[in-house]
Amino acid sequence: MSDAESVEGLTRASAYRALTTACSDTGLRADQAELLRLGENAIYKLPSEGVAVRVARADTEDVEEKVTKELAIARWLLSKGFPAVEPRDDLPQPLRAEGRLVTFWEYVPPSRTEPGLVDLARLLRELHSLPEPDFALPALNPFSVMWRRLERAHGVKKRDVEFLREACARSEAEFRDVAAHYPTGLVHGDAHRGNLLARDSRVLLIDYEAVAVGPQAWDLLPTAIAVDRFALGRQDYHAFCRDYGQDVTASLGYQRLRMARELGMTTWLMQNAQSGAAAEEFAIRMESLRKEDRERRWHAL
Question: Which residues form the Aminoglycoside phosphotransferase domain (predicted)?
Answer without folding.
Answer: 53-254
